[in-house]
Amino acid sequence: MIRKAYIDPTSVVHDSASIGEGAMIWNWTKVRENAEIGTGTSIGQCVYIDMGVRIGARCKIQNGVSIYQGVTLGDDVFVGPDATFTNDRVPRAHSTDWEIVVTIVEQGVSIGANATIICGNSLGRHCIVAAGSTVTADVPPFALAMGTPARVVDYVTVSGRRLRRDPQAGPPTIEEVMDKKLPGDAQK
Question: How far apart are the C-alpha atoms of 73 and 30, rounded to whole Å?
Answer without folding.
Answer: 17
